[in-house]
Amino acid sequence: MPVTKNPYLRYKAIDARLRNRQKPLPTLLDLIQACAKETDFEPALDTVVKDIKNMRISFHAPIEFNYTKKAYEYTDDTYRFDGVGLLDQDISSIKNAIELIQSIGSSRVSGQFEHAMEKVLTAYREKFPQGDFKRQFIQTDAPRDFRGFEHFDLFFRAIKDRIPVSIVHYSYSKHRFTSRIIHPMLLKEFDNRWYVVAYSDEHNEIRTFGFDRIHDPVCVQAEFRGEQGPDAVAYFQHIYGVYPIENQELQQIIIDIVPQELAYFRSYPIHESQKFVSVQNSGRARIELNLIPSFELIRLLRSFGNSIRIVEPVWLRNEVKENYNR
After folding, report:
1. Which of 112-121, 151-160, 204-213, 293-302 has the lowest mean pLDDT?
2. CATH number of 149-236: 2.20.25, 2.60.40, 3.40.50, 2.30.30?
3. Which of 157, 50, 73 has the alpha carbon at shortest distance from 110?
C-alpha cells in the first residue's frame, strides 16, 4: 500500500486539524482537505467517515459531532493521538528493523509486525520514501508463501494465551488425514521451514507438526495441557533439527573428520555443544557432541559421505551407513 494512502497518515491529519485552535470545529470537508494536504491524495467522503469511526474505536479518540455548529470536535482537550514517546534513534532502529524484514521476506515473521511498526512511525509523521527499499541488501533462500504459514498468527496467539487448537494433520508417509487436539508450546524454524511444537492429546507427549501438514486449525475451549512433559525450549536445546528419534536420550556423539573439512566444522559447528577433543597424527580431527539424535542429524552426517567417520555410538554409525547405502 503506498504511503499516500496509509490510513494512519489520515488519522494524524484529522487529529492535527481537530487540535488547530486557530481554526476550531472543522467540517467534514475541512477534514478531507487536511487529509489531502498531508497525503497528497484526496480521500473519499466515506473514507474519512470510516477513519473517524476507527479512531474512536482503535485509538479511543474522543471525537464528537457538534450538531449545533455542524462540525467535529474533541470533547477532551488533553487527548493526544501521538502519545507514544520515541526518540529519533528509536525511530531509526524501527525503520532498520522493517527494512531487514522486507529484505529477508515475510516467511520468517508475521506480516502484522510491519503493519504495527508503520502505525507507530506514522504517529510521528515518519514517511517511508519509496526509494528507501528499492535496493536489496540481503538475499536469503527462505521460500515465500509456502503452505501453512498463513496459520502463523493463530499459533502465536494460542501459545501466548495458552489455548488448545484443533487441527487436521496430513501424514506424508501414511497418506491420510487425522484430526487431533494439540496444545501449542513453541514456534520453531529449521532449514527455512516452520513447525509448531505442541503437547498432543493423541500421543500423550510433545510432538512436532510441520506447518505444511496442518489444515483447518481452530482454537478450542478446553484445558491447556502444554506444561506436561519437558519444557519445549529446553528440550530443543539438545536437538539438531525438529524430529528426534524415538526412545533416544541425550548422549555423546564422537566424530572423526578429514583435514579438508576441519575449517568447515570450525566455522559452522553442528551444535553449540560441539568441541574438538583431539587432533590425530593423520591430520584427522575429532569432535564431540552432546545431542538427542534426530532424523535431521542423520541426513546431515550422511551428506558428508566419506569425509567423516562416526566413532560413537555404534548404532548411529550403522544407521548413517545404512541410509547412505540406500
Report:
1. 112-121
2. 2.30.30
3. 157
